[in-house]
Amino acid sequence: MSTSCPRCATLDLDIAIRTPGEFAKALRVIRANLTDGTLEAIPAGDEGARGSFSDLSEAGPWPDRVDCRFVCAGCGRRYRLRVERIRMPDAQQKAGLVVQVRHAFADVVYPGDDRLTDSFGDEPDALARDFRGRDDWTTLDADFLNQAPEGWGSALSFFSGHALRFYLPAYLVADLEGTLLIGDPTTRLCAFVTPIMEGKRVAKFYGGGTLGEHARRQFAVFDAAQVAVIVAYLWWKLDEAGYDPTVEQALENYWLPREADFGGHG
């Protein structure tokens, strides 16, 4: 294989494409290099290329398999864009995730009655009353989760970091089983670790710092297996939604790097 030349040296990279956003970015980079003449597209059917790059829009929708080939106009070096979306039957996927959730959180210890929330106000006070002594998350059914605390249905927003770690699996399982009607775990897991939100300041009265710093401190209690399950759950949510910029950005900005810090698996 020929070595890269000054024209294509910046393209001499192996990049894993994990999210729709990263795929759209790859399309933009390749299209810019086609436009300025750095790259030339190899026609479909030649050298194993499947389909035409010109048919791929940054906005989607995209086929499940993409395999496009390119050549540097200056040195002849070959480049490849290959993406394959792996699908499994939805029921099988959800059942497998439920098992993973139960296993990853099986040994988490109840945080104690005095560590259920670090917020204050009517809803956090109701949360402290409603969850007091509930030291087995596997016994919490969807009817309870959908109204907790005391009809507000807002518990996910007010759990402390340790309480979130303990009760989150109950919400994940209910969501995967289709019985969680109020409250969305992705809001708590994603909203404050997106680029647009993480830098927003928190009033000193509420502890100061930024929303991102606060979220990262709370998420620090999750271990490798739990982070892996959260990532798998967020992938499932992203697939269900088709496109959710908050979930996608949270994956790219926080959860995938966090998983990589653990070696990419639980």
Question: What summary fits the major beta sheet?
Answer: 3 strands, antiparallel
Overall structural class, as computed from helix and strand content, comes to: mainly alpha
Per DSSP E runs of 2 or more residues, the count of β-strands stands at 3
Strands of the widest sheet, in order across it, are 1-2-3
Q: Average pLDDT value?
A: 90
The rounded distance between the terminal residues' Cα atoms is: 37 Å
Q: Indicate the low-confidence ranges by residue numbers.
A: none
Strand content: 5-15%
Q: Portion of residues in helices?
A: 40-55%
> What overall form do the CA principal axes indicate?
elongated
Radius of gyration: 23 Å
Determine the number of helices (DSSP H or I, runs of at least 4 residues).
10
* Helix/strand order: HEEEHHHHHHHHH
Q: Give the oligomeric state.
A: single chain
Number of domains: 2
Provide keyphrases for this structure:
266 residues; mainly alpha; 2 domains; 10 helices
